[in-house]
Amino acid sequence: MQSPSAAAAQASRAARDQESRASGNSLNQQPVIRVQGLRKTYQTARGALDLFDDLSLDVQPGELVAIVGQSGTGKSTLLHILGALDAPTSGTIYCASINVASLSAKEAAAFRNREIGYVWQFHYLLPEFTALENVAMPLMAQGVSKAEALKTANEWMREVGLEDRADHRPGELSGGEQQRVALARALVSKPRLLLADEPTGDLDGVTAGKVFELVERLHASHGLTSVLVTHNMDLAVRCKRTLRLESGKLTEITDAKPKSLQSGNLN
Fold first, then answer.
1. How far apart are CA 4 and CA 58, in angstroms?
2. Contact call for residues 32 and 193 (beta carbons, < 8 A)
3. 227 found inside a domain
4. Is 255 exposed, middle or buried (0-12, 13-18, 19+ CB in 10 A)?
5. HSE (side-chain half, CA atoms, 13 Å) at 80
6. Domain-located, residue 8
7. What CATH number should be reported for the domain holding residue 207?
8. CB-CB contact of 197 with 224 (8 Å)
9. What's the rounded Cα separation, in Å, for the pair 202 and 211?
10. 225, 194 Cβ separation under 8 angstroms
11. Which domain holds residue 246?
């Protein structure tokens, strides 16, 4: 028997699925992400450092958006703010219709578990558990029974092509396999939004391409809205939009391979 929290989580996911089917691809849909006037200030020994300068961003339902830029420009920090892992200094940040800047720590944790799938450059799988158990953990954290969580996790292991590796521990998997498990874990709760921070940055070129193809397929087949931070322009230009973060602002890259970025990677 499911706990009340598990039942509520399933009801929330079902409502979002119904909302998505009803809304279809209407051009009148509200953005899944809306950022206006974002500022993030850090205090340093030399004084205040403004990382973002009145930054704005809209991401529409179903978009796959890449954010590129030099190291230190704040790409990861921006994802952390969108995913309620960090707080802005000022500005309005709506994500999945929630004002994430107004959430308490407890509310932010519940929001992340319900609405956000997060993939990092490093997989952060728990080494003492199997791949299947790692994927199931977000569901068990919501109160879903272990049996039901493992059943759903097994379906996701099949989705990422690793059903035959379900009983292996992370140390027994290749880097690409570990990242595929991390992707399954990120999506097992059926989040509305996928945030990926350099998900292929620790992989060789061939494996990175295969993992990105999987991200593209799951993004499309599960109706996700996805924001990807990457240094790899070959992958970034495959997204619906590519944005460059520079001097605290986002600008859209309209040329598929801008002259300044033709080397393929940003340093």
1. 35
2. yes
3. yes
4. exposed
5. 9
6. no
7. 3.40.50.300
8. no
9. 11
10. yes
11. 62-86+102-255
